[in-house]
Design brief:
six-stranded mixed β-sheet, 26% strand, single chain, 6 helices, alpha/beta, 19% helix, Purple Acid Phosphatase, chain A, domain 2
Amino acid sequence: MRLICISDTHSLHERMTHKVEKYIDPDQDNILIHAGDCTNMGREPEIIEFVYWYQNLKGFDTKIFIAGNHDFGFEHYNGLRHSNEAPWLHHIINEENLSQSDVVYLHDSEFVIEHPKFSRPIKFYGSPWQPEFYNWAFNLPRNGWELELKWKEIPDDTDILITHGPPHGCRDFTPQNLQVGCELLRYRLDTLKPLVHVFGHIHHAYGGAYIDDVLYINASTCTERYVPRNRPIVVDLKEEDGKIVTTYID
């Protein structure tokens, strides 16, 4: 199974220097993951354009995405603001519509893939939350009980975790060398230990790193200056002697 990971495209998906289709391996199941901030402000035209683009990408067995702090419109869909303000969004994002093109939208929810090459199902879990930053979307107070509850909802048997923001100390550094990831998420990950954690949000920290046997992937497509030139990050999964191992494809 191949994971092709992107994030933070900010409505610039058509201008990406590296097209996601180039990383498809025809000999594997290819899973595309977008870790949020698919739009710049989450307005109706931006969301419609992104979803149409995502649905029409060819060659992927499954295409998973979550929302991020720029994707305000998705708060309407999840009833976090005034859901009756965006009936168009319910029509676009509902499971029946997305599933016709193998797209899955995750919001504090899971998706399971069963494949004959693996002796057990592979569980994906996605969540858009991150510590509060200038009252953007899906913000909760840093180190508060609400964030703690969100991370407790992550199932213990999650294999691929997708959040918008990073955990503290894992590809979360700013140009000023500050580490701004979520402390409570890092605490949860210390016991959860998924195979892979995919996120974005902090453009400057793009890249991957193994930390305590977990592969952390900051898949931000846009640079600090919002130029969509970072390559998709590719991870291969395979089972060896009953254990699922990950390979970070550089």
